[in-house]
Amino acid sequence: MSSLLIKNGRILTLNQSNEVIDCGSVYIEGALIKEVGTFPDDQYAADRTIDAQGRVVMPGFINTHHHLYSSFARGFAAPGKPAGNFKEILESLWWKLDRALNEKDVYYSALLALMESIRSGCTTIVDHHASPSCRDGSLDIIEQAFREAGLNGCLCYEVSDRNRPGEGIEENARFIHKCLKYGDDQIAALFGLHAAMTLGPETLERCAGIGKETATGFHVHAAEDLIDEEVCAGKFGKTVMDRFHDAGITGPNSIFVHGVHLSDHELDILGGTHSILVHNPESNMNNAVGVTRILDMLEREILVGLGTDGMASHMISSARAAYLLQRHFHHDPRVGFLEAAGMLLKNNRAICQRIFREPRGEMSPGYLADVIVADYIPTTPLQSNTLAGHVLFGLNYAPVRTTICRGKLLMEDGKLLTLNEEEICARSRERAEKLWSRVK
Ligand SMILES: [Zn+2]
Fold first, then answer.
1. DSSP H stretches of helix in 248-386
2. Which fold has domain 3-60+359-415?
3. Bridge partners, residue 61, by sequence
4. Distance 37 CA to ligand 1 centre (A)
């Protein structure tokens, strides 16, 4: 079993007392953290030793909603006139782009986003995938990218009736069964659904049946834009969350994404069923869909996590956007800050506890050795009660120097060790150019 010692670190343990250890060490054996504290260097005969030289050492970040397939959209302008609302954004950009993806595009777009995740210190990613022209087996391709990168992932395929009824059901079912049979917990599965507005009652019923049979939660967009509520009210006579709840989609293992336009009644459904809500502030602002009622959700003790929705892979950036947006929206400089830090550092790991078996997100013995060394030496006191300020006002600008996932070094001193960055970037530029030319 390989072993690794990180010494001379300022360790943000994120344990129950939010302890910060000055000049501490972390000993890792196999995929797990064995000891954290101030013990002598020669206490263990580690295979490798990394000297953090006073830099911050902390758990890898977690992204609870991403779309790896959106990597090739960077710099792309959809043909035709600019989209004027959310429906047009879906129809003129995302639904054309995802239909044009082939197998190699799925693979390289995943690798690109995973590479950026390693660079920004994110070690667990919950992905939501769509590629209708190469649907079957697409989750295996993404799994391969995760394994080559060395990161943890939770995968799903977005079922939607937008192209044909029930499209994607079999891909989810196949991959869920594969994970249940062979899963090593590096890769887990949820059942993916697009959104209530593109899902008819028969499809929802079939998906709910498989979810129940396999004891698997769902990963679905909910009330991202007002149109989702309008379509559900007009076509089905119910709110978005009533439809999901009546179909059996809600529950503690199900992730509802965005929830921008949920009513009090729908928040009560989320809270009453202990369902998860994942907030994506940068994406919400980019699509101009509105402001999620984070404070109301937290007051109802809903588990609110944080994602990037394919916009980027940088989790502190998402947390900063969450806090700034809430503060600005409420005209209240007292709110949003600790809530956003809590979503990033605590709630996302609580979400992972529901969808993975192995605990992560804390520097304590027995936790997964998902650890980063950030190129950050504090210039003001860094302790348990100032930690959130250092994360959101300092660490966000500091490059991650070293990323370790499951005890394996994925990046050391800024150099990627598992992925060939130059080659992946060159191949991706070629593929993206061809993809763009196919989107009409
Ligand atoms: Zn999304």
1. 264-272, 281-286, 294-299, 315-330, 337-342, 348-355
2. Urease, subunit C; domain 1 (2.30.40)
3. 122
4. 39
Domain 63-355 belongs in CATH node 3.20.20.140: yes
Q: What is the pLDDT of residues 162-207, one digit of tens each?
A: 999 999 999 999 999 999 998 799 999 999 999 999 999 999 999 9
Question: Which tokens is 140 given?
Answer: 């295996």
Sheet containing 218-222, strands listed edge to edge, beginning at the edge strand earlier in sequence:
191-195, 218-222, 255-258, 276-279, 303-306
Going from the Cα of 66 to the center of ligand 1, the distance in angstroms, rounded, reads 6
What spacing in Å lies between the alpha carbon of 397 and ligand 1's midpoint? Answer: 25
Alpha carbon 95 to its chain's center: 21
Distance CA 172, CA 210 (A): 9
Separation between Cα atoms, residue 314 and residue 224, nearest integer Å: 21
Q: What's the confidence (pLDDT) of residue 330?
A: 98
* DSSP type of residue 254: P
Residue 431: the pLDDT is 97
Answer whether 3-60+359-415 and 63-355 agree in fold: no
Instruction: Please name the helix (run of DSSP H) or strand (run of DSSP E) that holds residue 10, with its range, or none.
Output: strand 3-12
Ion ligand 1 neighbours (CB, 5 A) are 309
Distance CA 215, CA 191 (A): 10
- What's the 370 CA to ligand 1 centre distance in angstroms? 25
Element (DSSP H or E) covering residue 208: helix 201-213
Q: How far is CA 383 from CA 100, 339, 380, in A?
A: 49, 18, 10
Domain boundaries, the chain: 3-60+359-415, 63-355
Output DSSP code: residue 383: S
Q: Please report, for residues 215, 269, 358, 359, the alpha-carbon distance to residue 355 in angstroms, rounded to integers and kept in the order given.
A: 11, 20, 9, 10
- C-alpha 386/C-alpha 381 separation (Å) is 7
pTM comes to 0.98
The CA 67 to ligand 1 mean position distance, Å, reads: 6
